[in-house]
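Good morning C.,

I know you're traveling, so I'll keep this short. The sequence:
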Amino acid sequence: MEDIYRETVTAIENGANFRIDFQSRSLKVNGRHMIRNGRYDGAPWLPEYGCGDFFTDVEELYRRYKHSIPSERSQSKSRRYFMALPESDLEDGDMLYGQHRDTAQFELEFYILCRIIGGFTWNPETMGKWFWQSEKDKDLVILRKWVEPGSNQLLTNSQ
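The tokens, ready to paste straight into the viewer:
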């Protein structure tokens, strides 16, 4: 496997299904694990996102996802980490120049997964006890349990 990112984007553009699970650090494409428990073959990192500011990158990727063009397939997904605008709320520019929703969703979730696997850690002083919410877009929320599996259990037991 040469590059998990490019291989998966190509597969999604050709109709593949994918599922990212932040807590188990996994990526499945058409039922096949590409990343399992944070382990993988190949190079999953996104070259254009390297080690930039996590929140700035996530806010930009979320903006693209939120304004992406839905398909029947993307609208039928029952499990999503993030909310996107329904087609009726998209502007003309979104419809003309926006990304396809499945691809935008993958790029956002994959970026977060890669940063978590790469060692991103939760800072309760700057991010909050249970979740972080973007100042730019209040719809963008990242839960602590995605970054630190079991954190809700630990916090509940310590009170």
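Safe travels,
E.
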